[in-house]
Amino acid sequence: MIKNNGDAACPRAKGDSLNFRRASLSATAIILALGTAGAASAETAPVGVPDKSFPESVTSTSDGTLYVGSFNQGGVTKIAGGKAEQLVKPGAGDSRSTLGVLADEKSGTLYVCSNDISGFGVAGPSETKGAWLKTFDLKSGAPKGSFALSDPKSLCNDIVVGADGTAYVSDSFTPIVYSLKPGGTALATFATDPQLAPAKDGVGLDGIAIGADGNLYVTTFIPAKLFKIEMKDGKAGAVTELKPSRPLDHADALRAHGSSLLLIEGNGKLDKVTVKGDQAEIDTIKDGLAEPVSVTAVGGTGWIAEGKLSYIIGDNKGKDPGPFTLTPVALPK
Predict the structure, then answer these.
(1) DSSP-derived secondary structure letter, 331
(2) What is the model's pTM?
(3) Ramachandran region of residue 315, left (φ > 0), alpha (ψ -120 to 50) or beta?
(4) In the β-sheet with 225-232, what is the strand arrangement from edge to edge?
């Protein structure tokens, strides 16, 4: 998400105003590693995304095709065989700035979080107000559906899809996880809990994933926390804050990977998260990433979007962010 409050990737809310700042992160070169101990596969070369597109989220399909949104330009770029093409045009389907993206091969749907972030100083490609979940055809990019988040303060952040085809959506500025069943015409409140509410001067719900145990897992960004939302028969149960093995720093994107979860920390880390009861073991896979915002797994490789959002809304605004890439990292077995 959006870099803020020191060094992370999400907006900071204070009353009705949004303020952004970023602590200095050490400059890091993109390194083509030969692999890591216990890795499922070796890393491959980084792939480029369009100039000054400030990616905020990345998703993938099983054939290795990558899909990346744009915080400022909107739309979705498809990358296959190292070649990039515009799949969803900026502003298509009355979309605006693109945050979370999620490819669902089973339904042939690309889910997109579209937001009016003009309050952050980013106009986006259209005049559409509010926060929306947009759906597009995964092959053609044609618009399929449009679903509004109910609260005027809402910020559609990220999406996960369950085995039954229900989509779940995190809202950064309200304590709500929304759901959209297959064929549904409107978002419904799936889960809400005071623990998920944005703290004063903080940011709430961010990453979202369904674990191997069938439960829903979410992060909150500021302060950085992990939560488990029990799921049974398609209904939400207890919300439990997990106890991490070490403090987290701006917990951002969350993706399922095997029996564990992949977590992006806004201070430059990709982590493996292993949940046991109410405990979360945090193992850092990669540190020193340049303002990471999202990750997607293709086989044994994690592809990381380094958003460099401080160059559009933070302390580095106006400076040249340099080229944008998706960086590959070998994942542990």
Answers:
(1) P
(2) 0.88
(3) alpha
(4) 203-210, 216-222, 225-232, 235-241
Furthest C-alpha separation in the chain: 50
The per-residue pLDDT string of the chain (333 residues; one tens digit each, 9 = 90 and over) reads: 554 433 333 443 333 333 333 333 222 222 223 233 333 444 589 999 999 999 999 999 999 999 999 999 999 999 998 899 999 999 999 999 999 999 999 999 999 999 999 999 999 999 999 999 999 999 999 999 999 999 999 999 999 999 999 999 999 999 999 999 999 999 999 999 999 999 887 789 999 999 999 999 999 999 999 999 999 999 999 999 999 999 999 999 999 999 999 999 999 999 999 999 999 999 999 999 999 999 999 999 999 999 999 899 989 999 999 999 999 999 998
Number of other CB atoms surrounding residue 129 within 10 Å:
13
Which two three-digit tokens encode residue 102? 């999620």
